[in-house]
Structure formats: C-alpha cells, structure tokens
Amino acid sequence: MAQATQSAPARLTGDFSYRSKHCACDGLLLIGDAFAFLDPVFSSGVFLALKSGELGADAIHSALLKDNVCAEQFTEYGQLICHGIESMRKLVYAFYDEGFRFSDLLKKHPELRGDLTDCLIGHLFKDFDSLFRAVGEFADVPTPLEYGNPLIQSDLNNLSSTVVEN
Ligand SMILES: Cc1cc2nc3c(=O)[nH]c(=O)nc-3n(C[C@H](O)[C@H](O)[C@H](O)COP(=O)(O)OP(=O)(O)OC[C@H]3O[C@@H](n4cnc5c(N)ncnc54)[C@H](O)[C@@H]3O)c2cc1C
User: Fold this and answer.
1) How far apart are CA 73 and CA 60, in angstroms?
2) How confident is the model over 61-69, as a mean pLDDT?
3) Domains of the chain, residue spans
4) Ligand 1 centroid vs 123 CA: distance in angstroms?
C-alpha cells in the first residue's frame, strides 16, 4: 500500500442482510444468496447456501416425481429454511447488542450450552424457544420476518384484482 493514493474517503457499511419476499413460484425455487443473505458473523453464509441447496433439491425431486412443480410444492421448503435462517438471525442480532455476552447467558443458563452450540454450528432445524427466551433477557430478539413463503398464483391473482379495484 506504500505507493497507493487514496482516491475517495473511507466508508463504513453494515447489515447488508436481505431476504426475498418469496422462496419460489411456479417452476422456480431460490436457494443460497439468491434467496437470503445473513450477516456472516457466524459463517452461516456457506452453510445456509449448502443446506438450502440440499433441502431445495429434495423439494424439487419430490415435485418432479409428482409431475407438479407448482409453487405450493415448495411451501415446506420455505418454512424449513426460514426457520433455520430465523434462528441464526436472532443470534446475529444478539451478537451486535451491547447488553449481550455469551458468557453472561451461559452463566445464568448453563443448561442452554448445548442449544447454543447447536445453533452456532448449524444444527438449526430444532426448537430453540428456551434459548431465545433466555437471550431475550439480555438483548432485543427480532420478530420473524413474514417473508419466505412461495408465491402462490391465486395470491397473485387476488393481489392484482385488489390493485385493479383500488
Ligand atoms: C465479503 C463477504 C464475506 C463473506 N464471508 C463469509 C464467511 O466468512 N463465512 C461464510 O459462511 N459466508 C461468508 N460470506 C457469504 C457467502 O460467501 C455466501 O453466503 C455464499 O457464497 C452463497 O453461496 P451461493 O452459492 O448462494 O452464491 P455464490 O457463492 O455467489 O454462487 C453463485 C455463483 O453463480 C454464478 N452466477 C451468477 N450469475 C450467473 C449466471 N447468469 N450464469 C451462470 N452462473 C452465474 C456466480 O459467478 C457464482 O459463482 C461472505 C460474503 C461476502 C460477500
């Protein structure tokens, strides 16, 4: 960098997490970053990309066996992957909360060590209610986003008729 010349002011950015409103529509399913991205503070990016690829492949396989790739076929996929993303998302929010420390959480709730480890290592598809109730004693826990269900054609028709009516 010794020879480098600064050409613009230094900038800081943060929280570039996002989620698509829908995980699928007729004949199309989103996985990985194409569906959602979480701040990778716990290295969840590659895990969620691989896991959604696996779950998405299973969903597509069973849809093809039924010869029906309508959006409805991908409802369970959307619910599962959103459950996983939401669990990790709560932990990401806690990490950035000034009132939260993992050591304080485990001092007060040593019985939750296993749940916390599971969440951090990607065993996300289980019930974390007790863990996040406890996290809520130290940090604001975000409410789940409503995004992530498949775009069902009948919903779309209802939406466009509402728009026309208005
Ligand atoms: C700066 C940064 C740091 C990160 N750090 C971490 C980390 O430490 N740990 C972690 O787990 N995650 C991290 N992530 C997140 C992680 O990299 C992503 O979540 C993950 O790579 C997503 O995988 P993906 O397969 O969905 O998408 P990608 O890895 O983006 O793969 C998509 C592929 O599709 C290709 N492609 C795009 N358009 C087309 C097209 N039209 N035709 C053909 N090919 C196409 C692209 O070239 C790319 O190779 C980080 C991300 C960024 C940006």
Assistant:
1) 8
2) 97
3) 19-144
4) 21
